[in-house]
């Protein structure tokens, strides 16, 4: 140090560098050398970087008073976060090169008054948008709005929009309002008015901006301040935009302003720009807050709403009649029916339900509806089933109701659909007729409709207390070709006419003759004669004659025998005519020229006729009987009732009562006696 002070003739900068080296670290000596040789910039660097003494550096800068020294001091002070001192140093140095660092540090430390001074100096040195913008911002932060307004009205390069946004975000709405007015930016200006409580001015600014976001902001602020007149003006410009409608509604609802909201939307649907969402949201609001008005609203505007969304609102608030109406209007008949079933106390009406059920597509709903009606409205079940008769499986319906034990409720319905001859329907009706001892309806049912378990029904009624029911059992056995069983039942109940008809319908010769023998056994002469009449084609003449002769029933068998004789006589006469005609034809062939000589001789006409007569014999005279066609199966075939005939043989011909009337008085085979025509064309 002593050499440094005493000596002068040496290379000071070079010696200072050596002193500053890591080997020596002689910082004071280096500072003294720089100071002695007037290298103030290097000297202040040594103070700041090596000795790290801002105080000595400040004193040195004051003595040196050079811009470069002040600039380096300011930069060091800025690094040490001594913003005010740094700005003062930069001002003394008239240095604007580090304005970005200065701005950042000043805003961090909020030394805006010093920053204004620095930026005013800096904009004289450098033309940069950042400097002007930050100066405007600093004016606003200092609340020096007059100077700020004067500055922005003059020539400047400030980004007023960015500064205004920045101030707006920080809550300096007055300053931001001035900036946005100068641009102008009406959307932001409206926001500023809103935050300042200037709602009328906010509405005017929003009208100029005319965008949904601005209107929404104004509306929300007005609602929060309960300025509903301004809020409605803003709201009318929002509700025409479907994307913003729900947010608006939510804001009103959060504040509990339901009446004002409904009034706003109700006013909106009268406008030209009303849309589906507007009607829909108004409907949902009615569902929430004024359910008594919802049904009328839906009826008037069903075609303009988003019906599924309204339905969800109705279901959420348990408005089931309205939900049913909307489902029907939307052609969702299945959902409408389900709703009425699930919420019948409020949603169900019979006429509406029947109308809906005629249009449902899910067949399972029909059977669910049946269970519902059985449980809730059983007396109306027939009306429902009649309305949907062409859409349901009748067998399944009957089975379902049978399981629940309510078949009598649907008798009218089953009678209506019995025409389809469905087994389950027939079985159900027949069971009900049996239980109710309605033999007339039961007989009519089994005669007209045959698709049921006939044998089971017959077994059920064959021991019934009512005679007519047992007769129906006989009828069922006969229809199922159990003729013997039917006849035996008829015998037990002395229903001999039914037994005769059964034997006749069986076509079984053995059964018919067995029945005839039974009448002989019980000595019932009238039934014996009637059986011969009814089973005429089945009973062999020799059997009938033998039974009558052995048991002295000749009077009763005589009409039958007269008829047999008359029939064979007629057949023989017809055969004779046929033979005569054939002989005439052969004679004509012989009289004509013919060289053909037959190699056989024709049969004797008398023998030929006898052979044909043998073929025409009654059934009892042949080993393989063939019942005569057109037998006496029609009870009315003999003619009218003659006086004096037994009452058990109706329509007995007069010839049967008086055999002489049938044969006439000639007694010859060549004479044709008087006769009547029997059924099948046979003469009597």
Plain-language structure description:
By secondary structure, the chain is mainly α. Among the domains are: 126 residues, Serine Threonine Protein Phosphatase 5, Tetratricopeptide repeat (Alpha Horseshoe), CATH 1.25.40; 101 residues. The chain is built from 43 helices and no strands. Helix 30 packs across helix 31, helix 34 runs antiparallel to helix 35 and helix 37 runs antiparallel to helix 38. The termini are far apart. The C terminus is likely disordered.
Protein traits:
Serine Threonine Protein Phosphatase 5, Tetratricopeptide repeat; 43 helices; coiled coil; 684 residues; mainly alpha; ARM-type_fold; clathrin light chain binding; cytoplasmic vesicle
Outline type: rod-shaped
Helical content (DSSP H or I, runs of 4+): 55-70%
Could you say what the CATH topology of one domain is called?
A: Serine Threonine Protein Phosphatase 5, Tetratricopeptide repeat
DSSP strand count: 0
Query: Which stretches are low in confidence, meaning pLDDT under 50 for 5 or more residues running?
Result: 595-684
Per CATH, the class of one domain reads Mainly Alpha
């Amino acid at each position: 140090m002593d050499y440094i002070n005493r000596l002068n003739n040496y290379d000071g900068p070079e010696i200072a560098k050596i002193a500053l080296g890591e080997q020596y670290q002689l910082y004071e000596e280096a500072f003294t050398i720089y100071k002695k040789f007037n290298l103030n910039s290097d000297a202040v660097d040594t103070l700041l970087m090596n000795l790290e003494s801002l105080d000595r550096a400040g004193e040195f800068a004051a003595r040196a008073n050079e811009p470069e020294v002040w600039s380096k001091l300011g930069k060091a002070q800025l690094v040490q976060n001594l913003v005010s001192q740094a700005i003062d140093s930069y001002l003394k140095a008239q240095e604007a090169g580090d304005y970005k660092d200065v701005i950042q540090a000043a805003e961090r430390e909020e030394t805006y008054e010093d920053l204004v001074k620095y930026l005013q100096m800096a904009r004289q040195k450098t033309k940069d948008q950042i400097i002007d913008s930050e100066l405007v911002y600093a004016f606003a932060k200092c609340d020096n709005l007059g100077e700020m307004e004067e500055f922005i009205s003059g020539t400047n390069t400030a980004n007023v929009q960015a500064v205004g946004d920045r101030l707006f975000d920080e809550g300096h709405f007055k300053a931001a309002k001035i900036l946005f007015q100068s641009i102008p930016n009406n959307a932001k200006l409206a926001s500023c008015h809103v935050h300042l409580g200037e709602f009328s001015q906010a509405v005017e600014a929003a009208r100029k901006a005319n965008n949904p976001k601005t209107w929404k902001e104004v509306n929300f602020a007005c609602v929060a301040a309960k300025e509903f007149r301004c809020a409605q003006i803003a709201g009318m410009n929002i509700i025409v935009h479907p994307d913003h409608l729900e947010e608006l509604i939510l804001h009103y609802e959060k504040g509990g302003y339901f009446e004002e909201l409904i009034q706003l939307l109700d006013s909106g649907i009268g406008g030209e720009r009303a849309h589906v969402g507007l009607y829909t949201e108004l409907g949902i609001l009615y569902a929430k807050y004024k359910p008594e008005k919802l049904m009328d609203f839906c009826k008037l505007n069903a075609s303009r709403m988003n019906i599924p969304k309204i339905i969800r609102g109705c279901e959420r608030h348990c408005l089931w009649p309205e939900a049913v109406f909307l489902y029907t209007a939307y052609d969702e008949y299945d959902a409408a029916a389900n709703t009425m079933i699930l919420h019948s106390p409020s949603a169900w009406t019979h006429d509406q339900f029947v109308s809906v059920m005629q249009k449902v597509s899910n067949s399972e709903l029909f059977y669910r509806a049946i269970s519902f009606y059985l449980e809730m409205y059983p007396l109306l079940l027939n009306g429902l089933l009649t309305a949907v008769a062409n859409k349901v499986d009748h067998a399944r319906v009957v089975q379902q109701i049978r399981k629940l034990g309510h078949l009598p409720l649907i008798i009218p319905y089953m009678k209506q659909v019995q025409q389809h001859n469905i087994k389950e329907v027939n079985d159900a009706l027949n069971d009900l007729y049996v239980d109710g001892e309605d033999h007339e309806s039961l007989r009519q049912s089994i005669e007209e409709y045959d698709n049921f378990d006939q044998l089971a029904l017959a077994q059920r009624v064959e021991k019934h207390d009512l005679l007519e029911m047992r007769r129906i059992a006989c009828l069922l056995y006969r229809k199922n070709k159990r003729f013997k069983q039917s006849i035996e039942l008829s015998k037990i109940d002395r229903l001999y006419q039914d037994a005769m008809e059964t034997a006749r319908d069986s076509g079984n010769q053995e059964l018919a003759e067995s029945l005839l023998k039974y009448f002989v056994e019980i000595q019932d002469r009238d039934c014996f004669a009637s059986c011969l009449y009814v089973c005429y084609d089945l009973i062999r003449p020799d059997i009938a004659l033998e039974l009558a002769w052995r048991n002295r029933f000749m009077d009763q068998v005589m009409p039958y025998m007269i008829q047999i004789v008359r029939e064979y006589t007629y057949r023989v006469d017809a055969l004779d005519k046929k033979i005569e005609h054939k002989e005439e034809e052969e004679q004509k062939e012989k009289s004509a020229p013919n060289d053909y000589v037959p190699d056989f001789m024709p049969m004797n006409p008398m023998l030929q006729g006898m052979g044909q007569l043998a073929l025409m014999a009654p059934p009892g005279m042949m080993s393989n009987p063939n019942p005569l066609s057109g037998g006496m199966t029609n009870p009315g075939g003999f003619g009218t009732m003659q006086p004096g005939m037994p009452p058990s043989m109706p329509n007995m011909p007069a010839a049967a009562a008086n055999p002489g009337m049938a044969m006439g008085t000639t007694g010859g085979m060549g004479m044709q006696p008087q006769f009547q025509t029997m059924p099948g064309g046979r003469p009597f």
